[in-house]
């Protein structure tokens, strides 16, 4: 019957989602286990503590994302320095980018006067998702630039990657519920990102060329400077 088919579809969506989430959690766990073992040897190194910390924070972000889906309306809006939010999001990817030979360029000190009004945890979630996608879009060596611009009413933060790009016929699917074209993707990232940004009266602008790269721009209303 129809009812039964619907149930089956639901289960497979949950199954796909679960396998993507498990994959995202398992990677940092594997890394944490490895570095914990190294800490116990003569190769022990202070840097390993930072790596372990950043891997644990990755897992924390995945938990936040799931929580956001469960309770999307709990927000805590304050005036925040956008560059700081991006800087803290980037801090999570040190090891990942290093492993993958990706250079990430961002100069937070250039943007010390640009504030937005928002929920810091949620906005960090947005930038973590966009940076993660940019890293995953680069298959060999690559570069990610992050820039902030503004006009009288808005701030624009752009994440520019030279990864695989998005084919023109797929760009409209991006951000639709659970859309992913990665074997171990969840399609959660842009969905949550879109919810958060809309809730902040902002916009997401995508510009992409297959084989050349992708730019995601987050537009947010500028907040009065403190
Ligand atoms: P996931 O990363 O789990 O697949 P997302 O919602 O984060 O889910 O992204 C959805 C899809 O959008 C990705 O599977 C990918 O096809 C596409 N995408 C997002 N960001 C980029 C990017 N920077 N470069 C190329 N494709 C991207
Ligand atoms: Mg993603």
What does this structure look like?
- This protein has 226 residues and is an alpha+beta fold.
- Helix content is 47%, strand content 20%.
- Strands 2-4-5-7-6 form a five-stranded mixed sheet.
- Helix 1 (2-39) runs antiparallel to helix 2, helix 2 (46-70) packs across helix 5 (120-137) and helix 5 packs antiparallel against helix 6.
- The longest helix has 38 residues, at 2-39.
- The model has no long low-confidence stretch (mean pLDDT 87).
- It binds adenosine-5'-diphosphate and magnesium ion.
- Magnesium ion (MG) binds at residues 129, 132-133, 189.
List the defining traits of the structure above.
226 residues; alpha+beta; five-stranded mixed beta sheet; two-stranded antiparallel ribbon; 6 helices; 7 strands; 20% strand; globular; binds adenosine-5'-diphosphate; binds magnesium ion
Helix and strand succession? Answer: HHEHHEEHEEHEE
Which cofactor or ligand species appear? adenosine-5'-diphosphate, magnesium ion
**Radius of gyration, whole Å:** 18 Å
Tell me the fraction of residues in β-strands, as a range: 15-25%
Report the count of strand segments: 7
Largest β-sheet summary? 5 strands, mixed
Number of helices: 6
Helix amount: 40-55%
EC number: 2.7.13.3
Organism: Heyndrickxia ginsengihumi
Protein name: histidine kinase
Catalytic activity: ATP + protein L-histidine = ADP + protein N-phospho-L-histidine
């Amino acid at each position: 019957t129809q009812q039964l088919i619907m149930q089956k579809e639901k289960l497979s969506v949950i199954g796909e989602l679960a396998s993507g989430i498990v994959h995202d959690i398992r990677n940092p766990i594997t890394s944490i286990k490895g570095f914990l073992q190294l800490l116990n040897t003569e190769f022990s190194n202070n840097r390993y503590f930072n790596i372990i910390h950043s891997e644990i924070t990755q897992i924390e972000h995945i938990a936040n994302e799931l929580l956001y889906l469960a309770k999307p309306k709990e927000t805590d809006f304050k005036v925040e320095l956008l560059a700081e939010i991006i800087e803290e999001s980037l801090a999570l990817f040190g090891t990942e980018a290093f492993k993958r030979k990706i250079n990430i360029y961002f100069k937070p000190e250039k943007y010390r006067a640009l504030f937005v009004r928002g929920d810091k945890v949620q906005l960090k979630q947005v930038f973590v998702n966009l940076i993660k996608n940019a890293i995953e879009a680069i298959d060999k060596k690559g570069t990610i630039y992050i820039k902030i611009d503004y006009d009288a009413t808005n701030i624009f933060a752009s994440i520019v990657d030279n990864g695989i790009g998005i084919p023109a016929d797929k760009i409209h699917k991006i951000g639709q519920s659970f859309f992913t074209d990665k074997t171990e993707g969840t399609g959660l990232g842009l969905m949550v990102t879109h919810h958060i940004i809309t809730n902040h009266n902002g916009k997401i602008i995508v510009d992409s060329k297959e084989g050349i790269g992708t730019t995601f721009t987050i537009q947010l209303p500028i907040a009065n400077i403190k």
